Amino acid sequence: MPTYTAPTKDMAFVLHDVLKISESDVPGYSDLDAEFTSAILEEAGKITSEVLAPLNIVGDREGCRLENGLVYTPTGFKEAFNQVCEAEWPGLATDPEYGGQGLPYLIGNAVGEMFGSSNQAFAMYQGLTNGAYASIHAHGTDEQKAKYLPKMTNCEWTGTMNLTEPHCGTDLGLMRTKAEPQADGSYKLSGQKIFISAGDHDLSDNIIHLVLAKIVGGPEGIKGVSLFIVPKVMVNDDGSLGARNGVSVGSIEEKMGIHGNSTCVLNYDEATGYLLGDEHKGMRAMFTMMNHARLGVGLQGLAQAEVAYQNAVIYAKDRLQGRAVTGVENPNGPADPLIVHPDIRRSLMDQKSFVEGARAFLMWGAALLDRAHRMDDKEADGLISLLTPVIKGFLTDVGYDMTVKAQQVYGGHGYIEEQGMSQFTRDARIAMIYEGANGVQALDLVGRKLAADGGKHVMAFFEMVKTFIKENEGNEALKADFLEPLKAASKDLQAASMYFMQVGMKNPNHALAGSNDFMHLFGHVCLGLMWGQMAKAASEALEGGASDTEFYETKLATGRYYMARQLPATGMHLARIQSGADTVMALDAESF
Amino acid sequence: MPTYTAPTKDMAFVLHDVLKISESDVPGYSDLDAEFTSAILEEAGKITSEVLAPLNIVGDREGCRLENGLVYTPTGFKEAFNQVCEAEWPGLATDPEYGGQGLPYLIGNAVGEMFGSSNQAFAMYQGLTNGAYASIHAHGTDEQKAKYLPKMTNCEWTGTMNLTEPHCGTDLGLMRTKAEPQADGSYKLSGQKIFISAGDHDLSDNIIHLVLAKIVGGPEGIKGVSLFIVPKVMVNDDGSLGARNGVSVGSIEEKMGIHGNSTCVLNYDEATGYLLGDEHKGMRAMFTMMNHARLGVGLQGLAQAEVAYQNAVIYAKDRLQGRAVTGVENPNGPADPLIVHPDIRRSLMDQKSFVEGARAFLMWGAALLDRAHRMDDKEADGLISLLTPVIKGFLTDVGYDMTVKAQQVYGGHGYIEEQGMSQFTRDARIAMIYEGANGVQALDLVGRKLAADGGKHVMAFFEMVKTFIKENEGNEALKADFLEPLKAASKDLQAASMYFMQVGMKNPNHALAGSNDFMHLFGHVCLGLMWGQMAKAASEALEGGASDTEFYETKLATGRYYMARQLPATGMHLARIQSGADTVMALDAESF
Asked: Which end of chain A is more exposed for a tag (fewer CB within 10 A), N or C?
């Protein structure tokens, strides 16, 4: 069975050596000294590795079951959920006004990685609650907030997000679920929603569904969509629970993975709902939640790659097969461990250099979000808005590929469910799809974010890369191995942006045909920048006489691998982008 | 539910327009005129699309079951197997001396693609029989051939290949299964074999297991391995069946995919076996079969990509979501079909240009094999031996990626098992692993095949590319769009080979660290060459006044896409290769 060990040391390195958070001016960061963060990370590491990780394969095997209209989660999930709630993990980074602990999102992100690595299907129950919480927190009335948020913090209630219908996913303007206004100000919702993660279960007393629907008589299409709070069980004025509302589970979907999470078809039959935010402004309210959720999904890409990598390393050290081509390394054994073979190393280094780069990228993103929220910093807000589709799309695409690589290290044993490596790929696969399929992320990046505010944020990004290179040119540990490859990659990204500006005006297809490559090109430059920053921190630590030289030298070596072996992808992406839309759009639909 | 339509027209294009087989001097090819091949392909298309394809998802859902020591295949498999056998498909390309129809392997390959696309798990029962048949045919005594081959041709008996044990897959020298010589010249085999595809089932009266084992008292390691014929049921001298032999099913493995094929743990307990080929020369006998089988697995990479692509196209034309950015294309519908969106096109073109290129590559490979076998052509033999790891490794790696892309077109619906797109990725995943994991293919290519016969075969390949470019320089339809990219890609491949020659001598790790990239670089050049040849054939057909202009123009457009969008990968692979082993091997095993 696979195991999981929380990478607390790597996390601490990014928090303290790279981001130097306790020196930051973001409110709340000054409390985050190494001792404090270490205590949190160690505790989270403990519960995730000891309680949640062993349940991961249980959830995969058992799945959820629907009996007499009630959904039951796999064996052990309820007990684990109670344990997680008693330790107050769900309220770690939520508003103290409603019972949360109010820690920065940056810390929530680090802990979230551990939950995702140890048991993605389990973590999603809380993940969806977080999304619903964020929407109510941002758009709810004081009364709504007081009514729902405390119980969504202390786990009495959980939440869901209801967008998709059988005939519409991305194109929500086609939505058919309708909301009929009632005399008391509430609405009656009717319609069918599908693919509702954590849609029903036995973990909490109530489920607060956030549901997109069209108010009868409102505008056509996307402009007539509003967001509603629809509790599974009605809530009385005193906060106690009343009768069941008109929402029922049609079925649980049979999926490729995340079997431990109940993905439901939910049928709304004159269910009572309460408008959240303004009439017909449902998409705006939803987007507040979605940008946040997209970072969370990007985190899943990292989280699955991390746990799959850990297990690939264990197997590569343990499994004896063949001999090193440069001479026997395990003379007392019948064969050498897999890890001596260069192609196995290549695969492990691909994985290691990705997960560590991705972790730094996500933590930087989380810090930008904290800066945006806690200091109302418009530049940080613009930058994280630009980077969000890159984080979601690039990290889940590559994260998935990494789980496939980890599985491959196991050879035939990777294909057998008993070993658990297949589950990591099957679970990771969903992250490329939900919260906006990655093609939609690429479209969001190229069609919307790139040119937002006159292209100001992407220019700021380029400036940041340029400044980093300039400021560190004197550092010989960085120059050839890090700064030059980063400069070349950044130049490719600038050339691609320029190409879009030149041709996209004439024919937007030229830009959109390259959107997926642009997202990947951007992702590589971001990870290149992260490795530059990590290498800087590591080389400074070594110069400063840090005692753990092996740790910092390993960081430098891992970074050199990424720069030498992964960054050359930027040239390929640029070439594809610059070939334009002609070959992409040449055929009639009938010719496929 | 997914559907399958055999791509008979595309196959005929490669056979007749590109390979021009009826003009070939390979014995047996002169019979293969367009009318004859069309009759075969249409018939095979019919049985695969109508009988096997509908059973694909049934096999995935039901899997195989073990009851009282007997294995049962999914509902409908036995009836379908009988139908396939009655139509004599298994004997299509086998030796007429033992009841086969003796058609070239090239035709067997085309039909094999259809079987693989429609139902890989089902096709494997016959695929394993083919492997066992080939070994007995190559290494058996006349008596053994007479005893086993006719019944393996007419489907009375099937076959398996038994290599892997719990502690050894690639490194077969570690094998523990032993063979005790008996007074009558037979052996008693004892040991455990795992991952035995089609290891037991209810489709045939008997199963002929080919088993690797060590003769007691023989040499240590790989030099002491011999190959044995071990029938599931003993065969009397008159060919009738006798008692059960000492081989039993320990369990059926639970796998990520190919659930319809019974992957068994087989326990040998003093089972009677007969030496096949020479004592201690088991690996040689096994390799005869394996090179053949590796082409078959490469074919699975194409086959799954093809059927997944077909279904992605159907969905992309059918599913209405969003509007084309360049203006509404389906004004009478609520939205435009997915296929109007450039990023969906990009994905479909990736898939289309891969499957058509891969098909040409495999057919060329099959024709080389026929030339090698039927004319004893050493150059063809050397070339297909060089290309075999490329076909196996590159086509299954990329074939898998293509099934993931096809699944992605479906959005959330691709993650639901009901739609069947998940099955294509789960089934395709195994092809990267079995018959030598793709890392082993890359090692075989760089460590063995590249330098075989003094590097003569890779030089012949480069010469072939050069000649093709030179001979077609006057063709304006080819020059800029095909010949120039091919030239650049081939130059990258030559530079990589040169790099290996220069540094590999000093330190083999420098070559092996780039082996996976080299395999992919080689694969791209092969597909580039295939597209050059297909473009040439299409442009000649158009110049010759062919009536089906749309077909040939589509070929040219699809080829242009591959050259513009896929071939730029060669530069990235070269850069990685030339970065050498230093960053790959930098860390101690403990630092992972």
From this structure: N
A357 Cβ contact list (under 8 Å, min separation 6): A527, A530, A531, A534, A562
Query: Tokens 């190393």 appear where?
Result: A345
A63-82 pLDDT tens trace: 999 999 999 999 999 999 99
Tens digit of each residue's pLDDT (9 = 90 or more) over A289-305: 787 899 999 999 999 99
Q: Is B435 a catalytic residue?
A: yes
pLDDT at B573 over 90: yes
Beta strands in B216-262 (DSSP E): 225-231, 233-235, 241-244, 247-252
CB distance A253 to A264 below 8 Å: yes
The alpha carbon of A572 is separated from its chain's Cα centroid by a whole number of angstroms, namely: 26
Rounded CA-CA distance B378/B592 in Å is: 46
DSSP H/E element including B548: none
First vs last Cα of chain A: how many Å apart?
44
State chain A's maximal CA–CA distance in angstroms: 83
Residues A412, B345: C-beta atoms closer than 8 Å: no
pTM: 0.98
- Which pLDDT band holds residue B506 (cuts at 50, 70, 90)? confident
Residues of A in contact with B489 (CB under 8 A): none
Q: Enumerate the residues of chain B whose CB falls inside 8 A of the CB of residue A572.
A: 568-569, 571-572
Name the DSSP class of B165. Answer: B
Closest CA to B511 of B442, B456, B588: B442
Length of chain B equals 592
In chain B, the residue whose alpha carbon lies closest to the alpha carbon of A552 is B591
Give the span between the Cα atoms of B129 and A373, in whole angstroms. Answer: 65
Contact A510, A517 (CB under 8 A): no
Three-state secondary-structure class, residue A531: helix
Contact B114, B48 (CB under 8 A): yes
Least CA distance to B552: which residue of chain A? A591
> Using an 8 Å Cβ cutoff, are A147 and A124 in contact?
no
Q: Which of B256, B264, B265, B566 to mutate to test the interface with A (most CBs of A within 10 A)?
A: B256
Which residue in A165, A306, A356, A435 is the catalytic one? A435
- Per residue in B108-124, pLDDT (tens digit) is 999 999 999 999 999 99
Of the candidates B175, B301, B151, the residue with the CA atom closest to the CA atom of residue B232: B151
Q: What is the mean pLDDT of residues A181-195?
A: 98
